[in-house]
Every structure is written in structure tokens, then in C-alpha cells.
Amino acid sequence: MKWPATDNPVLLRTDFTDEPAWASLCKAARAPSEEGFQANVDCVSDQCFDGLTVEQLVALARKGASHPVAFMADRLAVTGSERPILVVDLAGDTGRAFRVIPSQLWAVENNLSLGNMAYAEFADNVDADGVFRGFSKS
Predict the structure, then answer these.
(1) Which residue, 73, 76, 126, 132, could crosslink 80 as a Cys pair with Cβ 3.0–4.6 Å?
(2) 49-71 pLDDT, tens digit each
(3) Cβ–Cβ contacts within 10 Å for residue 101, how many?
(4) Smallest Cα–Cα separation from 107: which of 133, 89, 130?
(5) Mean pLDDT, to the nearest integer, of 1-15?
(6) Given phi > 0 = left and psi -120 to 50 = alpha, else beta, which region is 36?
(7) Are 4 and 12 in contact (CB under 8 A)?
């Protein structure tokens, strides 16, 4: 098993129970925001990643990832009502994870890839259930 060769961060599929749900998740994750921002992620669907854990992802990323973050489409992301994608830190606090709803993936990916914000700025602003739904407007 090798890290996917891509110029963009990956949305790595680790749950293969529902093909249409996976396709829908990829589409939602890459959809433009109201302001026109989009997540620059490559959706990677390869059975060799079926059941991959965060720990396994981190170990694999050490051998080939060039981005500070990876996104995982695990069972909850594929089947959950909000489809919260797992965000895994690969650079600072390696292995730290939180979830993000697809409509906010662009904010996380864009800002982390450009170095505009730190991973902790998102991870520390999740709701009580561990999901980032955007920064409060208050």
C-alpha cells in the first residue's frame, strides 16, 4: 500500500459499504461555497484503504504525503446524516483529528494548505460533538 500520488490533499475513502453515498460525499466536499471557494482535494477510492485507521493513515503518510492534512471518508462520513469527514493532522500534532461537514471542507483545506491558519484553530473550534461546522458569526 502506497500513499496516493497527487498534487492535492486527499479525501481518502476507507469505507466501501455504499457507492452512491461515496459519490455524493465527494461531490458535496468539492462543491463551491456561496462565496465561490472550493476544497482542492482529490477523492481517492482504492479498496486497499478499506478499514484504514487514523494510526495507519499517519504511518502511511510519513512515507509519501506532501500536505499537512489528510481527509478520511470513514463509515460515519459515508453513512452519517451530516456526513462529517475526518480531518487528520499530518504535520504539527500528528494524528490529532476532528470532523468537518462537507460544506466547510473548503475552509479547512484552503487555509491549512496555504498556511493561513493553524490546524488547532479549526480543531479547537469544533462543536461539542467534535464536528467543525464553521466559525460562529457572533
Answers:
(1) 76
(2) 999 999 999 999 988 888 889 99
(3) 19
(4) 133
(5) 91
(6) left
(7) yes
Residues in the chain: 138
47, 99 Cβ separation under 8 angstroms:
no
* Cα 35 to Cα 63: distance, rounded to the nearest angstrom: 36
pTM of the model: 0.94
Three cell numbers written together for 10: 486527499
Mean pLDDT of 21-44: 96
Q: What is the pLDDT of residues 89-138, one digit of tens each?
A: 998 888 999 999 999 999 999 999 998 999 999 999 999 999 999 987 65
Answer whether 61's CB lies under 8 Å from 90's CB: yes
As a whole number of Å, the CA-based R_g of the chain is: 14
CA gap 28, 26 in Å, rounded:
5
Q: Which CATH number fits domain 10-125: 3.30.470.20, 3.40.50.2300, 3.40.50.800, 3.10.20.30?
A: 3.40.50.800
